[in-house]
Specification:
Blueprint lengths: L10 H14 L2 H9 L20 H19 L7 E4 L4 H10 L5 H8 L1 H11 L4 H10 L5 E7 L3 H16 L3 E11 L4 E2 L2 H4 L3 E14 L6 E7 L10 E4 L4 E7 L2 E6 L3 H4 L7 E7 L25 E4 L11 E4 L5 H10 L25 H14 L3 E12 L9 E10 L1 H12 L3 E3 L2 H4 L1 H7 L4 E2 L1 E2 L9 E4 L4 E3 L3 H8 L8 H4 L4 E2 L6 E4 L3 E2 L1 H6 L1 H4 L8 H6 L6 E4 L6 H13 L6 E5 L2 E2 L16 H8 L1 H9 L9 E2 L2 H28 L14 H22 L3 H28 L5 H21 L4 H11 L23 H23 L8 E7 L3 H9 L1 H8 L1 E7 L6 E7 L1 H8 L3 H9 L3 H8 L4 E5 L2 E5 L4 E7 L3 E6 L2 E6 L8
Parallel strand pairs: 1-2, 6-9, 7-11, 15-24, 23-24, 25-26, 27-28
Antiparallel strand pairs: 3-4, 3-14, 5-6, 5-13, 7-12, 8-9, 8-10, 14-16, 17-22, 18-19, 18-21, 20-21, 27-34, 29-32, 30-31, 33-34
Helix pairs in contact: 1-28, 4-6, 13-21, 22-23, 23-24, 24-26, 25-26, 25-27, 25-29, 26-27, 27-28, 29-31
Length: about 950
């Protein structure tokens, strides 16, 4: 006897039982042991931060990271699945700053001390590991939490040092001053890809400023800016050499600006008079008076003159750009070209220092209004307003970034760009458009990577400097111990920065540079560092690199996917992974970003407990997410998956168990020869499913892998079982009934294996009850079903598809015309010109009658038995030929009879006489319209027309 199954199923309870079964019987471990010694399939898991709880973005990624390894395990591979934790970086430091009520980076050193702060950070980095383990396990994901890796482990950090040393030795590391996005809240620069993560629409001042030209009375050059706080640092003005500029008179003063921008600066052309036309290059080296006198002495070094720059445009402003070399990349490069002096009166907290006496200690954005007021008092403000535009914000602190010239450490990504583009060609991206689209374009425009952070809790950058300026890089713990003469147990800065380290050649005492690595550098080093390569596991790593597969959200095209490729290209000239699957972003139901504070989404734990993890998994993987598009998460959507897919599948399993127990039917291992077309058809469909799912999974197309089994559930429940019910119901235990049991049992067993990677719980529940003692202990210890071509019957599949199409069209007709299915109808007409289709429909005539409750089926290849034809002229074709005669010929075409149109359809021509002229009309010259005959309703789709005779007589009642 099978264990009895209720059709009133509560999936969360079943899933909890399955989790217990897996845990009690070590099924995950057994799945690994079963494949031990087989070929490895390598998978990298990008590390999340455990300072926050898992959300739906993690759940879709974790689902994908579970599906592929489960599938590859069932295909016979050994798939190690190690979980990892991102332990360093800004998220952890920010969390601790909040806890300690610290307002800035400066307060860490002054109030707490780096040792205490870092140890406090260490204490919270794994705060939510239990919650993560609980959620990920409840999701049904199999991953090794016990053999995890942590970026704060000494072994991991040592491998990060080794990675950096390789770059150092290859000449790919340099220290330089460069304008970078800078987070004043965190007191550190960010990389360009981090700056692209969080843009917001903001309002900023929009001001036009009068720069007084030197030695010219009442004459100004007009510039425009949205960052008034940069004006005290102005060192030059830039114009485009090829743009047309004009001198205009306005209110007794004279102004220079771009001709094309006059209309945006002045209200009307009547306000000003153009006095002179000139090119931008004619303005080069003109001198002007600075707005503020803080740096007047810099004139001797070449400041306060007009320079030429191609980046200046007439898209907005005045065609004149004010240059503050410390606060813009174009500004900085232009200043270098012209040897213009560099000034930076803004400290690490984005406050003016003592050089700007009037605004000393003011936060730069707070100074905007005061600067504008001062310009107005000086008569140097031409006009002001506000502008709404997109502006980058720090993705961690949610404060606006500033662009600031900073001394930092870089990796020469621009030197690697061509190799990265070549290596990207070796990666199979899913979806494919990411390859040359979002990711490809990003690496084409890659810039050198600022890898250092002016923070504390991270892997220290292993560069030491002597007082004489000599630098050297240390790439291992052993090397550090040799150069310091001390045992090193921890590589964090508060342990190693007090060591006395000597230059390996000169013996000079050296100090480590103060920065730590950007945590993206650590996660990009993960393939090597998780295995402590090259210090351990060298053979294992080299045999399994690049990874076969990685998966994350689309945001990682500019994050983890990118840093992996940078470092793997630099180290090995290879991509880090052969296959990358990208998912879209999960949004709240209203399209907004999911927010804990707004509570605009259902908690994942609630969803698991209410509907089950399989329902959530299937909802997400059968959605736009697997095409890298966004999903507006909806609880209703999960309910619909339950109602339309999981419950019908469960009911089909319940149906088998109920009737098999009633009949005391038991499976045996003998193959039975099948006679019923329904049995042959569902087995053929099963083989098609195996083939389609396997082909899709082998190219990592989860979208195409899910669709076939979702469709199969519909075919199994709404066609095969419904059409076969009477075979199970009948009292006699004949061969036909035995074949039905055999078929449904074997289909469910095989189907449970097919869906096991996707729906690990329901597949296990079905398998556990149906399996016999000769089968593996768990569905997840089975091999993935092999496709058997000999079980395919393409012609039967085609015939059944045609019948289903005809039935579907017939049901749609009944529904549209309110003809309930229980009302018998006299006749259904099935019309097609394809003789093979007519033959197939004829063979299934009884099935069609029963499904649609009709007395007769009439098959025909003549559509005119169902419809009346009328025609109109095809103006596109006839217009050029008939010219002025078009209207009259059109009227005559509308007068063509039903029989005339049939003649044309058969390839004949019809002559139309008009004003002693004869016009020959062919079928291509007309457009045919159809109207159904009285008492008929019809539906046409492709090459099949279905019509129902709607007349009800005494006999039908």
């Amino acid at each position: 006897m099978f264990k009895s199954v209720s059709n009133k199923v509560h999936f969360p309870n079943i899933e909890e039982e399955i989790l217990k079964f897996w845990n009690d019987n070590n099924i995950f471990q057994k799945s690994l042991e079963l494949r031990k010694g087989r070929k490895s399939y390598s998978f990298y898991d990008g590390p999340p931060f455990a300072t926050g709880l898992p959300h739906y973005g993690h759940i879709i990624a974790s689902t994908q990271k579970d599906i592929i390894p489960r599938y590859q395990t069932m295909k016979g591979f050994y798939v190690e699945r190690r979980f990892g934790w991102d332990c360093h970086g800004l998220p952890v430091e920010m969390e601790m700053e909040k806890t300690m009520k610290l307002g800035s980076k400066r307060e860490i050193a002054e109030k707490i001390g780096i040792y205490e702060f870092n140890e406090a950070c260490r204490s919270i980095v794994l705060r939510y590991t239990k919650e993560w383990r609980k959620t990920i396990t409840r999701l049904g994901r199999w991953v090794d939490f016990d053999n995890d890796y942590k970026t704060m482990d000494k072994s991991f950090m040592e491998s990060v040092w080794w990675v950096f040393k390789q770059l150092w030795d290859k000449g790919l590391v340099y220290e330089g001053k460069k304008v970078l996005p800078y987070s004043y809240r965190l007191g550190t620069p960010l990389s360009n890809f981090e700056a692209s993560l969080n843009y917001k629409i903001v309002q900023d001042p929009s001001i036009y400023i009068k720069f007084k030209l030197k030695d010219k009375e009442n004459t100004y050059i007009l510039a425009w800016t949205t960052t008034p706080w940069t004006l005290p640092s102005n060192m030059a003005l830039a114009v485009n050499p090829e743009i047309d500029y004009v001198k205009v008179k306005f209110d007794e003063n004279f102004y220079y600006l771009a001709k094309d921008l006059l209309s945006s600066v002045f209200k009307s052309s009547e306000e000003y008079e153009i006095l002179e036309h000139l090119k931008g290059k004619d303005l080069e080296n003109w001198e002007y008076i600075p707005l503020f006198n803080y740096f007047e002495e810099k004139r001797k070094e070449g400041a306060f003159k007009i320079v030429l720059a191609d980046f200046v445009s007439v898209d907005d402003g005045t065609g004149v750009v004010h240059i503050a070399p410390a606060f813009g990349e174009d500004d900085y490069l232009t200043a270098k070209k012209y040897n213009i002096p560099f000034v930076d009166p803004v400290d690490d907290n984005a406050e003016f220092d003592s050089q700007v006496t009037d605004f000393k200690g003011l936060f730069i954005k707070d100074a905007d209004k005061l600067i504008i007021k001062e310009l107005k008092n000086k008569g140097l403000l031409f006009k002001q307003s506000t502008i709404e535009h997109s502006y980058p914000y720090c993705w961690r602190s949610e404060t606006p970034l500033i662009y600031k010239a900073i001394s930092t450490w870089f990796v020469k990504v621009e030197d690697l760009k061509e190799k990265m583009i070549k290596n990207n060609e070796q990666i199979h991206w899913v979806p494919n458009h990411i390859k040359h689209g979002r990711f490809g374009k990003w690496i084409e425009n890659a810039r050198d990577w600022a890898i250092s952070r002016n923070r504390y809790w991270g892997t220290p950058i292993p560069i030491w400097k002597t007082e004489s300026g000599k630098t050297f890089c240390i790439g291992s713990v052993e090397e550090l111990e040799n150069l310091s003469g001390q045992k090193v147990d921890d590589l964090h800065m508060h342990f190693i920065d007090n060591l006395e380290v000597k230059h390996p050649e000169t013996g000079e005492i050296a100090k480590r540079v103060p920065e730590v690595f950007d945590c993206w550098f650590e996660s990009g080093s993960m393939p090597y560092a998780q295995n402590h390569y090259p210090f351990e596991n060298a053979k294992f790593f080299e045999e399994n690199f690049p990874a076969d597969y990685i998966a994350e959200g689309i945001d990682q095209t500019r994050g983890w996917f990118y840093t992996l490729l940078v470092l793997s290209t630099a180290l090995f000239d290879k991509p880090a992974s052969k296959n990358i699957v990208v998912n879209g972003m999960v949004l709240a139901e209203d399209g907004a970003k999911m927010s804990k504070s707004k509570k605009n989404y259902p908690d994942p734990e609630y969803m698991f407990n209410e509907y089950g993890a399989d329902a959530v998994r299937l909802y997400m993987i059968n959605s736009p997410l697997v095409k890298a598009d966004d999903l507006k998460f909806s609880e209703t959507g999960v309910k619909e998956v339950l109602r339309s897919l999981l419950i019908p599948l469960w009911n089909s399993y319940s149906f088998l168990v109920t009737y098999a127990n009633a009949d005391n039917w038991r499976p045996n291992n003998k193959n039975i020869k099948l006679n019923d077309n329904l049995d042959k058809w569902i087995f053929s469909c099963l083989q098609a499913l195996i083939k389609d799912s396997q082909e899709a999974m082998d190219v990592y197309d989860l979208n195409m892998a899910v669709k076939p089994f979702v469709n199969f559930i519909e075919q199994l429940t709404n066609w095969y079982i419904r059409r076969s019910r009477r075979r199970f119901w009948k009292s006699e235990n004949d061969l036909n009934k035995q074949e039905a049991y055999y078929t449904l049992y074997n289909v469910l067993i095989e189907f449970s294996k097919i869906i096991a990677p996707f729906l690990p719980f329901i597949s296990e529940a079905i398998y556990q009850n149906l399996k016999n003692d000769d089968m593996p202990e768990s569905v997840h210890l089975c091999d993935y079903p092999e496709y058997k071509e000999e079980l395919r019957d393409y012609f039967l599949e085609s015939k059944m598809n045609l019948v289903q199409k005809a039935v579907s069209m017939g049901r749609a007709l009944r529904a549209r015309h309110k003809l309930k299915i229980r009302q018998p109808l006299k006749t259904i007409y099935l019309v097609t010109k394809d003789s093979l289709l007519i033959e197939s429909l004829g063979e299934m005539e009884d099935l069609i009658k029963e499904e649609l409750n009709v007395k007769n089926v009439v098959l025909s290849d003549k559509e005119d038995t169902l419809v009346n034809y009328y025609a109109k002229a095809n103006f596109k074709v006839l217009g050029p030929k008939l010219g002025k005669n078009m209207k009259e010929v059109s009227n005559k075409i509308q007068a063509l009879t039903h029989d005339d149109i049939i003649l044309l359809e058969q390839g004949n021509n019809i002559n139309i006489e008009l004003n002693n002229e004869v016009f020959s009309i062919s079928y291509n010259d007309i457009v045919v319209y159809r109207t159904q005959k009285e008492g008929m309703v019809l539906e046409t789709e492709n090459n099949l027309t279905v019509a129902l005779d709607t007349e009800l007589d005494q006999e039908l009642n």
